[in-house]
Amino acid sequence: MRIVLVGLPGAGKGTQAAYLAKNLFLPHISTGDLFRENIRQGTELGRQAQSYMRAGQLVPDEITIGMARLRMRQPDAVDGFLLDGFPRNVFQAESLDQLLKDNGDSLDVVLDLVLPQEEAVTRIAGRRVCRDDSSHLFHVTYNAPHEPGLCDVCGGELYQRQDDTEETVRKRLEVFDRDTSPITAYYRLRNLVVGISALGSVAEVTERSMVALRERGIRAGRGDTHDCDP
User: Fold this and answer.
1) 85 is in an annotated binding site
2) What is the pTM of this model?
3) Three-state secondary structure of the chain
4) Was 172 annotated as part of a binding site?
5) CATH architecture of 2-27+74-215
């Protein structure tokens, strides 16, 4: 089973990818993890990627594709995977198709987490992080602290990360519209896209995704002959 997860920033792709991968017994492959692991191991691709990142430049597609190619060849991914953050543009999508074709494989489904843009802005711009412990996360609307500006756990100051400001979020959405949203149209031509509402709780979105997969006849991994449970 080979799945690609797409959606606006703020749609919850990382969270959903983790839950779905666990339910489907699939490795979760994310672009961020690929970069971090290659940099940590000091691979040639990792060194190349780090040089671009340190210069504040985008990592070229060829490097990202090379990392994805190596990761998909690892034993745990031979029979399937869930991709999160890759492909990021149509060129990467075409390259992924060729990688799979070379191995006699193909994608099974593209799950599109659908979220209104203004909701994406609200979700991201409302995030607040504790300065004393970045694992303490809050939201001004959905998970507000008892005392404004202070962490409920340790009393540390809550702040808004630069990447979470409304201005930055809207720029990210513009980049998504330009570079990433065409992927959905690319895959829709092959009847691979299933739209899933990203509104509601994490559990609700996960259940919608699992139901949609069952409806397309996609079953759990590891040779399981039973439909996946929601």
Assistant:
1) yes
2) 0.86
3) CEEEEEECCCCCHHHHHHHHHHHHCCCEEEHHHHHHHHHHHCCHHHHHHHHHHHCCCCCCHHHHHHHHHHHHCCHHHCCCEEEECCCCCHHHHHHHHHHHHHCCCCCCEEEEEECCHHHHHHHHHCEEEECCCCCCEEECCCECCCCCCECCCCCCEEECCHHHCHHHHHHHHHHHHHHHHHHHHHHHCCCCEEEEECCCCHHHHHHHHHHHHHHCCCECCCCCCCECCC
4) yes
5) 3-Layer(aba) Sandwich (3.40)
